[in-house]
Design brief:
39% of the residues lie in helices and 21% in strands. The protein contains ten helices and seven strands. A seven-stranded mixed β-sheet has the order 3-2-1-4-5-7-6, sandwiched between helices. α6 (123-133) packs across α8 (182-190) and α7 packs across α9 (207-216).
């Protein structure tokens, strides 16, 4: 049986883009995590900023669209993600690990790490590396999810996947990293932390987007694309979601979620 990994999950950005699109279209309270991070940083536009775990590079694109003139860089272990950053005018894309950033000490004014610390076995090691590459007086901003964010959908996928022998693969999610633990980790490394929590929920009104979102979580439940049993898991997940909507006319699939933006000054 093929076992998913972070490498395989982010070899393309398709599943990530599905998750981002779902959150953008179906959040109960209108919210934009990229705008929340930008607001927390209070950027003037001239700072040198590196985004760790840049993914689709939506955050860097936002800064570029706002006319940011300082040096911008996206770093990710995924070649697809690094390439997405490099395609943005005036933005560098680097393929590297968060624990080994190819930069001299104090090279950056600002560092952002959105929704990526929970992919690391040793998040404190990465935070210490963040501290190394940010100048004295510079800012590090991380975003972590609430514990069990979107657990309703994930629990459904997990239960269906288990029928076919699939289990959560090791090394993809570090459940010790969330909104409850993140602030203490930042204080341990930086000695300070400013915390802003954002509570929300997905509210999906019809089966098709709920099915697409559920499928975008398959790898985190052990179901790799092309694996024997993939189509059966998808068919069962689809059937269960369609059955729920049919049994609950007029109701929306509600799945609580949230995240926390944590900023720290490098003293």
């Amino acid at each position: 049986m093929t076992t998913p990994s972070l490498t395989s999950e982010y070899a393309t950005l398709d599943a990530l883009e599905t998750r981002i699109r779902t959150h953008r279209l179906y959040s109960e309270t209108d919210d934009d995590v990229n705008a929340s991070v930008a607001a927390a940083l209070r950027l003037t536009g001239s700072e040198q900023l590196i985004d760790i775990g840049c993914g689709t590079s939506e955050f860097l694109a936002l800064l570029a669209e706002r006319g940011h003139t300082g040096r911008l860089c996206g770093l990710d272990t995924s070649q697809s993600a690094a390439a997405a950053a490099a395609r943005l005018p005036g933005v560098a894309g680097i393929r590297a690990a968060a624990e080994r950033i190819p930069a001299r000490a104090g090279a950056w004014d600002f560092l952002t790490a959105r929704h990526m610390l929970y992919h690391l076995d040793d998040p404190l090691r990465a935070l210490r590396e963040f501290r190394r590459v940010v100048r004295s007086g510079g800012t590090v901003c991380v975003v972590v999810n609430h514990a069990r964010a979107c657990a309703r959908t994930r629990d459904l996928v997990t239960a269906v996947a288990a029928r076919y022998g699939f289990r959560e693969p090791p090394g993809m999610l570090n459940r010790d990293v969330d909104s409850d633990t993140g602030p203490a980790m930042m204080r341990d490394v930086f000695g300070n932390a400013e915390v802003r929590a954002f509570d929300n929920a997905l509210v999906i009104p019809e089966p098709e987007p709920a099915i697409r979102f559920a499928e975008s979580l398959f790898a985190f439940c052990g179901v790799a694309p092309g694996a024997t049993g993939y189509s059966e898991v998808r068919a069962d997940v689809e059937a269960e979601l369609r059955r729920w909507f049919a049994a609950n006319p007029g109701r929306r699939w509600r799945d609580p979620k949230g995240y926390t933006v944590i900023t720290a000054i490098r003293t």
